[in-house]
């Protein structure tokens, strides 16, 4: 079975240089594919050079031409399988001020590389997007819910929640992909004897959205209730 790889995109003659990202990552044991940024990404997929489902991360080596980075990334993102793939921009230090924050990259790294730093940034991308669940903890994207300690962390930062906010978050997270009505949430979190109305749920949802931000992409399903989507990068919606 073919493994996953890191795609390094840049100017052809420079891609395989000794101090380049491809060489650095191969020395660390990673599988790497080098792709000339002048190639048409659509052709790369048609010819089987790039399998979007296997790409761990994209590194665009703009070096001294950060102006080329945004159109290259846009071209790659047109491939649905790369739409949410983490992307790292590599530039020389003199070019940092020319980086466009709206270009769509998740992070940037300076050239010449520190190999361990380069690889760690990729591992951080993967951790943010990874998921796991056991009896004690549940991880969805950048959010970790510790059931035993009743604590929540987002990107390593502790988030202070009330008891009811935590219970509501945990229940919705454990039932991802399924719509839960306000009545169901009231019964599960507040108990059958609770005499308050469904607006209680709406108030707690707003508080969770304010505290957790994009880590909590809860969707409002009109006339039905709330749903935490299976994709942790999907956008939420306000009432």
Q: Unreliable segments (pLDDT under 50, ≥5 consecutive)?
A: none
Number of E strands = 12
**Count of separate structural domains:** 2
- Beta-strand portion reads 15-25%
User: What is the percent of helical residues?
Assistant: 25-40%
Mean residue pLDDT: 85
What does it look like?
- By secondary structure, the chain is an alpha/beta fold.
- The chain has two domains: 5-129, Rossmann fold (3-Layer(aba) Sandwich); 131-227, Arc Repressor Mutant, subunit A (Orthogonal Bundle).
- The protein is built from eight helices and twelve strands.
- The chain has helices at residues 12-15, 21-27, 41-46, 69-77, 115-129, 163-174, 182-190, 199-212, and strands at residues 5-10, 32-36, 55-63, 87-92, 107-111, 131-133, 137-140, 143-146, 151-154, 157-159, 219-221, 225-227.
- The strands form three sheets. It has a five-stranded parallel β-sheet with strand order 2-1-3-4-5, sandwiched between helices. The protein has a five-stranded antiparallel β-sheet with strand order 6-7-8-9-10. Strands 11-12 form a two-stranded antiparallel ribbon.
Summarize the structure.
With 239 residues, the protein is an alpha/beta fold.
Features:
alpha/beta, Rossmann fold, Arc Repressor Mutant, subunit A, 5-stranded parallel sheet, 8 helices, 32% helix, 23% strand, elongated
